[in-house]
Amino acid sequence: MKKTIKDYNLYDKKVIIRCDFNVPMENNIILDDNRIVASLDTIEYAINNGAKVILMSHLGRIKEASDLINNTLEPVAKRLEELLHRKVVFIGETRGKKLEKAIKKMRAGSVVLIQNTRYEDLDGKKESNNDLQLASYWASLGDIYINDAFGTSHRNHASNVGIASILPNGVGFLIEKEVNILGRAINNPKRPFTVILGGAKVNDKIGVIENLVKIADYILIGGGMAYTFLVAKGLNVGKSLVDKENIDFCKKILDNYSSKIILPVDNIVANEISNSSLVRVATSDNIKDLDIALDIGPKTVELFNQYLIKSKTVIWNGPVGFSEIKNFSKGTKALCETLSKLDAITIIGGGDTASSVINLGFKDKFTHISTGGGATLELLEGKNLPGINVISDI
Ligand code: AMP
């Protein structure tokens, strides 16, 4: 078991908390503050226990100087002030006198947010390459390091693995919750255990399929990735998305686990990806050359529901249709409705699946919506996450 924030006396200590404030933003306006809200339990615990709270996070990617302005964490500081009902001192730099002075002035319960850690990537990718000198400098600013950035825990960066290798450390409540819920679901699932996989490409989910096909009772496959499986079965999928390099992989999975893999029996097809395109339902053995299959059809929803209704654990990663467009979001919505009524543990993998179900109005209808995209996938692949691995065991 990993040490947590609760294993430390925080009073008057400078506690660096690595959060995941990597929220979608447009022109410095936060479009969705879920990740900020998800970090509050740990931050409030530190404040209430008299820590001097030093917050760090990355935001977006910094490749050139023009990326800086659009990826400042200043709007996050403002939103945090509203959510915490207290002053959050924002330092627009990742190192230097101003930052050191602000930390020196801190009192028990005060909060400082440091600028986007990836500003350091502009000069030799110091954050993303886990530069030792940078990690040592950041570690010198604090007494204790708490990693609560689940969404970054699959990365080996200076602001997670680097600092944690130097300071006494622990995980925060968000990482604890993510690992407990996802870990329990795959290591000791209540059965039947069903996985729904969708999204665009088979390639991104090979590791997940390989790991979960051994553990799960059923894998329901929808979304763009379903059509590579249908091709592997010898069916015509017209102009639907096909991941040519992975047809053989799909064949192998179908050969070895045919009773576990459930594929669409019908589909919503169109000639173009647009809300104004004419749509029709095509059974999977009757997709025409010009058709693009963009959602699962009503018979498939019924079929998937038969498996879901009897499930006790469901993990879902990847929308089962092109759900950003209303015409092709019905399948994803129908499955949301089914899951929201289940007496089961229901877990939504992060990234696109989380945005889809939230945008469709199902934010509070599941046991858990993960805050990680890549990190969740790697956990589902059965991999160890470096940002969590580095934390000391009790
Ligand atoms: P992923 O990041 O792999 O989970 O993929 C999510 C993306 O897959 C979303 O942008 C969906 O629009 C897209 N997607 C889902 N179903 C389809 C489909 N049938 N054809 C093309 N793209 C799809």
Give an overview of the whole structure:
The protein contains 15 helices and 17 strands. It has helices at residues 34-38, 40-48, 74-84, 97-104, 132-140, 158-164, 173-187, 206-215, 226-232, 247-256, 298-309, 330-340, 352-359, 374-380, 386-389, and strands at 14-18, 25-26, 29-30, 52-56, 88-91, 111-114, 144-147, 169-171, 193-197, 218-221, 261-262, 266-270, 280-283, 292-296, 313-317, 345-348, 368-369. It has a 6-stranded parallel beta sheet, sandwiched between helices. A hairpin with a 2-residue loop joins strand 2 and strand 3. Helix 5 crosses helix 6 (158-164), helix 9 (226-232) crosses helix 10 and helix 11 packs parallel to helix 12. The chain is elongated, with a radius of gyration of 23 Å. The N and C termini lie close together (6 Å). The mean pLDDT is 96. The protein binds adenosine monophosphate (AMP).
Derived from helix and strand composition plus strand pairing, the structural class reads: alpha/beta
Give a count of the beta strands, DSSP E runs of length 2 or more. Answer: 17
Radius of gyration: 23 Å
Q: Specify the helix fraction band.
A: 25-40%
The proportion of residues in beta strands is 15-25%
On the 0-100 scale, what is the average pLDDT? 96
Q: Which regions are unreliable across 5 or more consecutive residues at pLDDT < 50?
A: none
**Main sheet?**
6 strands, parallel
Quaternary structure type: single chain
